[in-house]
Specification:
With about 650 residues, the protein is mainly alpha-helical. About 65% of the residues lie in helices and about 5% in strands.
Length: about 650
């Protein structure tokens, strides 16, 4: 397979955007729900049919709709059955391990039935067994993501509660821990959805894990909510902000069909994006021989090798990354206790090759854009110096030749600027670099089922949005691991995947901050030296002129050396000004500060991971791990935002 074509083929054949929905709602025991169960099911079926029709009318290819649900009885299970009938994917973030989840949601009232369900045996109570059987049936073909890290504590509290049903303290302890886990499973669902569908009467919003609490959490996290009143399920409204919950609903108002279509369209399609956009970019195995001047500046002024040594870099082939730099991460994915081999395969075949491809393309574009601007500064300096070089050389008769060379150098500046603009080096570099940086950290996130909430991705206008859109869908394409996240799983994920990645990135940013600080300082000193030499040359001329006038030196000496001093008096300030221009354009000081801040954030995360791994086993929970992963993700996004703020407006331009 040809390397340069491997990733476009992957994008065409494997990666497809999809609409992600979440569902929450009242249980079957809720009086309002039970009184309108048939109407609620019909309303959900009609809503899902409308969503299917909207998706079918959109241009381009898409994957099937993915419904996320906790699959408790009532709304969740009805929606899950409707989704399965439509061929939708069903992803289930369970609040507990599968066995404990099935047992708790079957609501046994005796220890015997509880133990039977936990052991995989039928419950003696027919009603309890019917609920357990329904859960078994609907979860059989679903992708289960089991938050099993606190199962032992929850099971112990449950046993105590069932053994002493009159003990309210035991009941409250059990219910609190269950609610806490259900609420967190709801957050896992919300992180992944474009729209949350909620069947809720709007009455109770402060019960952790309850429907109202999930609705409020979704709105706070930036996910729109399609709210269905269970007493009038044929009508619904869409909320986008928490404050809208306080607005009185109009029962006679029609369903907000236009807003629903806009949400679906925005989730699946984005202006300026098509698979061809990336397919047109060509991955090359090496850095450019022509555009290496920016890295040469870093080498000369930052140290780290011979000034004139080769700077040509070999980029890791995308198809080799799983056996190369990504080997340790792939080994970690395969080594997760009870891990999902599908995740390991997708990391090796899709995510990491896509990162290597985007990284290689972005590196070459960065070289072209940044070196192009440095070339402009160098050509500007040479144009001035060559234009005046006839003076010290005593070749006034051949001034036209020097002028011709100066014109050619100025033409080179115009040609370089035009090429950078026409080929879009700046725009394409920004786009592919953002894709690469989002994907660089993806394996650590995906192995532990953590993603950035849809509503909290960076937003920008127009076609500039596509890197975030593409990266978000590339990560969502992988989906949740089909695994039980026990404490052993969490520990392995932190030790084998997260910690090595954080340590490596922290070391990289620390070294980068130091190097760029040196580049800035030395460029500054070089520019200052040039201006000092300019002052010295002008002063030397004036001293010679004064000495001649006073008879201390021959009068002709100043006149004879005047062309040289004129040349030096112009050349040194020009060189100093252009060195200052390179320093300003490269913004080495601010980039050093950005890397320093990133390194400090990563150092703090590294320390937190160490404390969590060395602390009490009970502290190693999915909530704690997810909080660390989100901190890592936030550090990455903030670093990208800072980098964009520096270079965003610095297009390739004339060195004015």
């Amino acid at each position: 397979m040809e390397t340069s074509a491997s990733l476009p083929a992957l994008i065409r054949d494997s990666w497809l955007p999809h609409l992600a929905l979440g569902i929450t709602g009242h249980r079957a025991t809720n009086p309002v729900y039970s009184a309108h169960a048939a109407a609620i099911e019909a309303a959900l079926d009609a809503l899902f049919a409308r969503i299917d029709a909207i998706c079918a009318a959109l241009p381009g290819r898409r994957g099937p709709v993915r419904l996320h649900s906790l699959l408790v009885d009532g709304t969740d299970q009805v929606a899950g059955e409707l989704a399965a009938a439509r061929g939708w994917d069903l992803a289930v973030p369970l609040p507990f391990g599968a066995a404990l989840n099935r047992a708790i949601n079957a609501h046994p009232d005796t220890l015997a039935d509880m133990e039977a369900l936990l052991a995989g045996r039928p419950a003696a109570n027919p009603a309890v067994e019917a609920k357990a059987a329904a859960i078994r049936a609907i979860t059989a073909d679903a992708d289960l993501f089991e938050l099993a890290d606190r199962d032992e504590e929850i099971e112990a509290l449950w046993r105590e509660h069932l053994a002493k049903p009159e003990d309210r303290a035991a009941a409250r302890a059990f219910e609190a821990m269950v609610s806490d886990n259900v609420a967190f499973a709801g957050e896992v669902m919300i992180e992944r959805v474009d729209l949350l569908v909620a069947v809720w009467d709007g009455k109770v919003a402060n019960l952790p894990g309850g429907t109202g609490h999930t609705v409020v959490t979704a709105l706070a996290m930036g996910a729109p909510v399609l709210l269905i009143d269970p007493a009038r399920p044929e009508g619904w409204r869409i909320l986008g902000r928490p404050e809208e919950l306080g607005q009185r609903a109009d029962p006679a108002a029609p369903a907000d069909a236009d807003r629903l279509e806009a949400i679906v369209r925005a989730a699946v399609n984005v202006e300026g994006w098509s698979p061809d956009l990336l397919a047109k970019e060509r991955w090359r195995p090496h850095s450019s021989r022509i555009f290496g001047l920016y890295r040469r500046i870093e080498r000369v002024f930052g140290g780290g090798g011979s000034w004139f040594g080769s700077l040509r870099l070999a980029y890791e082939p995308p198809e080799a990354v799983a056996e190369g730099s990504g080997a340790a991460m792939i080994a970690a994915a395969h080594g997760m206790p009870g891990g999902d081999p599908r995740i390991a395969r997708q990391l090796a075949e899709e995510v990491m090759p896509l990162f290597a491809w985007a990284d290689g393309v972005a590196n070459r574009l960065a070289d072209a854009y940044r070196s192009g601007m440095i070339v402009n500064f160098v050509l500007a300096t040479l144009a001035v110096m060559v234009g005046l070089a006839y003076l010290p050389l005593g070749m006034s008769a051949s001034k036209w030749g020097f002028a011709a060379v100066e014109l050619a150098l100025l033409g080179g500046i115009l040609a370089m600027t035009a090429a950078g603009s026409r080929l879009g080096w700046h725009r394409r570099w920004f786009a592919t670099r953002r894709v690469a940086e989002y994907l660089r950290h993806a394996p650590a996130l995906l192995l532990l089922g953590v993603v950035r909430p849809t509503g909290r991705w960076p937003r920008s206008g127009g076609a500039a949005r596509w890197p975030e859109h593409f990266s978000r869908h590339a990560l969502r394409h992988v989906g949740l691991p089909r695994a039980a996240l026990t404490r052993d799983y969490l520990r392995a994920g932190l030790e084998l995947a997260v910690l090595p990645h954080v340590v490596g990135q922290r070391a990289y940013h620390t070294a980068k901050a130091r190097k760029l600080a040196r580049v800035h300082h030395r460029l500054d000193k070089a520019a200052e030296t040039c201006f000092a030499l300019a002052v010295a040359s002008v002063l030397a001329y004036l001293v010679l002129k004064s000495a001649g006038a006073l008879g201390v030196a021959p009068k002709h000496l100043a006149s004879d050396l005047s062309p040289l001093f004129t040349f030096l008096g112009v050349a040194f300030p020009t060189l100093g000004a252009n060195l200052s221009g390179i320093r300003y354009f490269g913004d080495f000081e601010r980039f050093s500060a950005i890397s320093h801040v990133a390194a400090e954030k990563l150092r703090a995360i590294e320390e937190r991971v160490g404390l969590l791994l060395s602390g009490a086993p009970q502290a190693l929970t999915y909530a704690a791990v997810a909080d660390l992963i989100h901190a890592l993700d936030e550090a990455v996004v903030e670093e990208i935002a800072s980098w964009q703020a520096v270079f965003g407006a610095k297009h390739l331009a004339l060195p004015a």
